[in-house]
């Protein structure tokens, strides 16, 4: 009896080790492909430090529109200085001899992981597929495609929308007596951590879709737990020390839960209609 219970568990561990080895090898290969792209990725990550972001362009458009419609307010608020204010680049600094090399390793590692996402999700599917029915196993291509796209959309959303907002907000505290001295490691580590977090946050609707199709979760189960989801989002976001980062994590995380609720409603497994009981004779 004990031997029959141990063997399946050992087989699961062997299968898990096999899948993890394939994932690690694939990520390392992806890291090799992304190695030469690390400098370009770092330049894109540094773009908010140049002051040339969608926020600054939007602010200029608003000020110029205000100048045309309400010139008195425009002149009284001295917005001309803000419009013509020169953009200064804030350089990154490093203090350790091999710090840029390790930063390149981290950037290419995350980029390699993103390149290997189809293989990563496929290996995860193969690990859980023995417990699925033949019909459920056919969902492998939609699952891998949706999961990969969701992670990439989350990472792109952070880099294009959220990251410039965080950096611009941070640099807005600069004055004549207070200047920023940004560390290369702190800047890149902060950005990479949030890229990974936003990618995982955007995976929530895909995971909910999968569980809903299998009948594990449903709209009736998720909808009443919105307050707990909001609390959980706040707790996850609270691990970041600054208030701005907390909000930019908490809001998307809760929105993904809200989307997941509606995904479960639309794509969830429909319950069969209850059979009517025959009257007792």
Structural write-up:
The chain is mostly helical and 281 residues long. The protein has one domain (2-88, 100-267). The chain contains 14 helices and two strands, in the order H-H-H-H-H-E-H-H-H-H-E-H-H-H-H-H. It has helices at 2-34, 38-46, 54-69, 71-76, 79-83, 99-115, 117-128, 134-137, 140-171, 184-201, 204-213, 219-222, 226-237, 243-267; strands at residues 92-93, 182-183. A two-stranded parallel ribbon has the order 1-2. The longest helix is centred in the first third of the chain and has 33 residues, at 2-34. It is globular, with a radius of gyration of 25 Å.
Topology, element by element:
Layout: H1 2-34, H2 38-46, H3 54-69, H4 71-76, H5 79-83, E1 92-93, H6 99-115, H7 117-128, H8 134-137, H9 140-171, E2 182-183, H10 184-201, H11 204-213, H12 219-222, H13 226-237, H14 243-267
Parallel strand pairs: 1-2
Overall mean pLDDT: 83
From the spread of the alpha carbons, the general shape counts as globular
- Name the beta content range: under 5%
Query: How many DSSP helices?
Result: 14
Main-sheet strand order equals 1-2
- Would you list the SSEs in sequence order as H and E? HHHHHEHHHHEHHHHH
Question: Percent of residues in helical segments?
Answer: over 70%
**Secondary structural class:** mainly alpha
Largest sheet: 2 strands, parallel
The rounded Rg comes to 25 Å
Pick out the low-confidence regions.
Answer: 1-6, 274-281
Number of structural units classed as domains: 1
Distance between the termini: 47 Å
The quaternary state of the protein chains shown equals single chain
